[in-house]
What we know:
Blueprint: H1 5-14, E1 17-20, H2 25-28, E2 34-45, H3 58-61, E3 65-69, E4 76-78, E5 83-88, E6 91-94, E7 98-104, H4 106-109, E8 113-114, E9 121-122, E10 127-128, E11 131-136, E12 142-144, E13 149-157, H5 185-193
Antiparallel strand pairs: 1-6, 2-3, 2-5, 2-13, 4-12, 5-11, 6-10, 7-9, 7-13, 8-11
Amino acid sequence: MILSDRDIKKALADGRIKLTPAPDFETQLGSCSLDLHLGNVFQIFRRSKIACIDIHDTEKTKDIMETLTIPEGEAIVLQPGELVLATTVEWLEIADDLVGRIEGRSSLGRLGIIVHGTASVFDPGWRGKPVMELGNLGVVPVLLYPGMRACSFTFEEVSSKVEVPYYLKKKNKYAGQETPLASKLYQEIEKKEE
Length: 194
């Protein structure tokens, strides 16, 4: 069951959801969601340096993206067909009996901006700055400003507290991230080769 606005407030008060900095309910709390803000660090593809992404070429796959930091007051230009990774400003921790889902905001969706391609689920026990897979499906470039409300989170209770929360999983790749991290799919390929 998706948590309502009152249940999100209660989960924050009880520490089942932790958000730093604390949310401004007036601007961030919806009827059953909580808006988070766009950070200023991005991972962008090195398009001029790679011809294609070969997930079996683990050395090249590790180096397909580079970090771009946008200064305060400036914007990143998201071109049509472009994909970048970014984190939220907020650090999020989810209890071992909740799951979080990141969603786009309707106002950005109407401009062609998506906030996740496939990775919408944040497992019970997630801790870190959520990553957005920002894409422009539109036909014109869109400026995105760090600090703007960029995504929305919903929370659901799972049937019971999980046995192994995400932060304790031995094979987790992204727990505790503070900046957007490029795909670590190469780690799965490397392990198969061992």
